[in-house]
Amino acid sequence: MRQMLLGLTTLLATAGTAAADVNIYTTREPGLIQPLIDSFAKATGVAVNTVFLKDGLAERVVTEGESSPADILMAVDAGNLVDLVDKGVTQPIDSAVLKEAIPAQLRDENDHWFGLSYRARVVYAAKDLDLAAITYEDLADPKWKGKVCIRSGQHPYNTALFADYIAHHGAEATETWLAGLKANLARKAAGGDRDVARDILGGICDIAVANSYYVGLMRSGAGGEEQVAWGEAIKVILPTFEDGGTQVNISGAAVAKHSPNKDEAVKFLEYLASGEAQEIYAKANYEYPVKAGVALDPIIASFGELTVDKTPLGEIVKHRKAASELVDKVGFDG
Amino acid sequence: MALVAGTAPSAQTAPRGRRPIWCLAAGIVAGLVVLPVLALGSEAIGGSLGLWSHLAGTILPAALADTLLLLLGVGLIAGFLGVTLAWLVTAHDFPGRGILEWALLLPLAVPTYIVAYAYLDILHPIGAFQGAVRWILGYSSPREFRLPDIRSLAGCVLLLSLVLYPYVYLTTRAMFLSQSANLLDAARTLGTPRRRLFRRVALPLARPAIAVGVSLTLMEALNDIGASEFLGVRTLTVSIYTTWVTKNDLAGATQIALLLLAIVVALVSFERWARRRQGYVSGSRGRTMQPERHDGLKGIGLCALGVLPVVFGFVVPAVYLAAEAWKRWRFAGLSDRLVGEAVDTLLYAGGATLLTLVLGVVAAFALRLSPGWTGPLIYRLATTGYAMPGTVVAIGVLLVVAPFDRLVDGAARDWFGVSTGLLLIGSGTALIYAYVVRFLAITAGSADAGLARVPKSLDDAARTLGRSAGGTLCAVHLPLTRASLAAGALLVFVDCIKELPATLLLRPLNMETFATHLYGEAARGTYEEASLAALAIVLIGILPVIVLSRVGRNPSS
User: Are residues A232 and A259 located together in one domain of the fold?
Assistant: First the structure.
């Protein structure tokens, strides 16, 4: 009981001083957003509190209800942002600044969530491999048998790609394609997107599917010398759908429905869409900035011109569950 | 089977006066543990069963098979290692035994996800080991020659066994040490050759301890997500996770979790049923076993054999981490985040350990006082949390705690016009609660095992001398079970430090432990930035191992 009272008094005390803070619940890794938070705090004097939740962010905000201290909900993958809206824990934000900075297809039509950066699902190929262009459809070509590496089919990066495939070709064709891709795998679908580059260097596979920014993280040396070697062992090909472009996904944020500091929250979002923050997204995280006119990092620019696939993010999200079930059906991760 | 008949303490030893209070207390503890499980149950019932037709036709058979094979493999290998090593250091004496006795516990300090990552890197075609193999065989590139990939079920079984066998070793060695030498002598007098004592006498006698150790090991294996994810093994636990996260179907995920819980309960019950007629009492405080001394080559050979699991389960990953951390330190310096993380990690683990210990003793003591059906039922309920994956427990706790917080906050707003915020979640109490739910089985189990070695005649004596049940507990039982309790508490402490899913889901703003930091980096593939945190987890894990070796040395103290 005494402990509870103690807890209560500290909480009341912090509640008093925390009036102008911004509280962020994020599934983005702390290391990725810390530079943005630091520069926001410096520019505005608003203190930022974070908790990195990975999975379960939606459940936590839902169950916390009106008592939730969360102001900003940040997530990777459009599907996760749409989930938050569906669960009713976000609110619309009418901000001219955000609308001007972020292209319409990268934000919610009802202004609940806003894309802040995007990344492409690309193909890594062994440096000396004679391959200049590839389509996603080609990945199931039997000529790649035993030569493809990819992470778990159930990872959101992959289910989004497969969902986009469904949008292009329908569920039946996607199942055939997935089974073909599965048959081409050099090893179990596991690990992360850097592991596939390391596995190409290790001779386990010739081509791999992974996100664009990892190349920047590896080649820049931020991860140490070994990773430079992984990054240098591969070249990046921007794959396309036969009838479309390269599949991209976003990282984004929304303001929580019961946000206690809404003004600061909006200020924070607007800051993230500013030229200064967008440059951090591009330079420190090697992502594609959403704001026009912000330069890409040279490593990312070296991949060539990105043609973003035209499937709306909302449609990809709709096919996500079907994609996940197809992954089970073909035993992709088995 | 050579078993000792129970000394048949009667259930009518103590006057009934104080028992209800102990049962009530234990009942409340059990209720607190069961609450999140019930919350999950109602979530599961609320969901549709549509998921199952999909699962049954697709991954369920494979996931079930993988899960059972993983459990079987880890149970066999870790069980074999743990029991053999425990016998090695109790029945034999050889150069280096004193150090080996506690060094064998060191792999406890290495979380499964760390051992998986370390070996994946070391054994990778571009890693040092395969590089050396290629150099010896004269190949220049991994494209010409490479060893099979470790990412497989077999690889996962081996790696998990390497770091989990200490659970079996710990419990079994304590049992071997407390086995009275008289029994072994009696067996020898009856003509059992020394080398067969192990199989004929010591092993059957140690069966309850082995069962406890192996079930701890299996629960840990069942709980693992990190290593399975790295190594591409699709267990039921991984299915729970993807159902929840990728398919956005929490109800479905809890349904699978309850299936998993049912499997565990069935296994445990079967084991108990199989030895239902056997009483195990080794309370006589006779001489302990006199180990057989080996010197010279044979002694060195035995020592080398015992050292192997330590090398592979601890030295290799620890040296690897130290090297990575050193590289990182020279590259980026020491982050001041680490200090704050150390404080949070130790504070939460310490608090949770203390609470778990006290509540575990209460549950075990109630079991001792009420041997009818109430005690065992309460005890069983209080220890369910350990059988559930951490992710699931975390959601269950969230489902219980968050509505409570909202209620308090709402009431405070209505009556006093102030907001309390989230009382339990915001203060970190929710997280401690989750740790207790998860790990209560460990301290309750140790307390129970310790109490089982205290003859009930001592209770009777103390009660006759006018002590209350509580007084007896403090004056008689606790001093006699100190070693067991310390062992349990330290296991909980290390487990809390390694704990990930509940910590991720339930921690308050700005709170970061070593494990969450490590996960945050690993999740985006920047393992190297977390190598210092990983090393810190392992180093903290060593401290209890050292203490454990001190108190474990003399189990009767």
Answer: no
pLDDT surpassing 70 at residue A166: yes
Size of interface A-B (CB pairs under 8 A): 194
Q: Are residues A176 and A58 in the same domain?
A: no
Per-residue burial over B379-392, b if 16 or more Cβ lie within 10 Å, else e, is bbbbbbbbbbbbbb
- The SS3 assignment for B200 reads helix
Chain A residues with beta carbon closer than 8 angstroms to that of B504: 52-56
**In-domain check, residue A152:** yes
Main-chain phi, psi angles of B457, to 5 degrees: -60, -30
Residue A9 lies in a domain: no
Interchain contact, B420 vs A188, CB within 8 Å: no
For A190, the 3-state DSSP assignment is coil
Residue B52 three-state SS: helix
Same domain, residue pair A108 and A124: no
Q: Which one of B394, B405, B504 has the shortest CB-CB distance to A67?
A: B405
Domain that holds residue A286: 20-118+249-295
CATH number at residue A240: 3.40.190.10
CATH code reported for the domain at B19-276+314-553: 1.10.3720.10
User: Is A152 within 8 Å of B232 when comparing Cβ atoms?
Assistant: yes
pLDDT digits (tens, 9 = 90+) for A121-133: 999 999 999 999 9
Flag if A4 and B423 touch (Cβ within 8 Å).
yes
**Domain residue limits, chain B:** 19-276+314-553
User: CA dihedral defined by B114, B82, B210, B274, rounded to 10 degrees?
Assistant: 90
**To the nearest whole angstrom, how far is the Cα of A180 from the nearest Cα of chain B?**
17
Taking CA atoms, what residue in A is nearest to B125?
A202
Does A101 share its domain with A64? Answer: yes
Q: What would you report as the CA-atom Rg of chain B, rounded to the nearest whole angstrom?
A: 25
Q: Based on the domain organization, do A28 and A166 belong to the same domain?
A: no
- The per-residue pLDDT for range A44-85, each reduced to its tens digit, is 999 999 998 877 888 889 989 999 999 999 999 999 999 999
Q: What residue of B is the nearest CA neighbor of A201? A: B126
pLDDT along chain B (557 residues), means of 10: 32 50 87 91 82 81 90 95 93 89 89 88 86 86 83 93 92 79 78 78 82 86 82 84 79 84 78 66 59 87 92 94 85 76 91 95 87 82 84 88 89 85 88 94 86 82 83 83 83 88 86 85 71 86 73 48
Same domain for A159 and A208?
yes
Nearest by CB: B520 against A31, A83, A227: A31
Contacts of B241 in chain A (CB under 8 A): 55
Q: How many domains does chain A have?
A: 2
Q: Which pLDDT does position B317 carry in this prediction?
A: 93
Burial of B276: CB neighbours in 10 Å, binned 0-12, 13-18, 19+: exposed
Whether A329 and B328 lie within 8 Å, measured CB to CB: no
- Name the residue facing B327 among A69, A224, A320 (closest C-beta): A224
- Beta carbons of A198 and B57 less than 8 Å apart: no
Instruction: From residue B472, give the alpha-carbon distance in Å to each of A80, B121, B368, B445, B451.
Output: 56, 54, 12, 20, 12
Nearest CA in chain B to A204: B143
Residue A7 lies in a domain: no
Residues from chain A that touch B248, judged by Cβ atoms under 8 A, are 79, 83, 321
Q: B109 to chain A nearest CA, in Å?
A: 23
Cross-chain Cβ contact B149/A31 below 8 Å = no
Same domain, A85 and A228: no
Within this chain, do residues A145 and A257 fall inside the same structural domain, yes or no?
no
Q: Directed axis angle between helix B60-91 and helix B207-223, to 10°?
A: 140
For residues B257 and B259, give the distance between their C-alpha atoms in angstroms, rounded to a whole number. 5
Q: Is residue A272 part of a domain?
A: yes
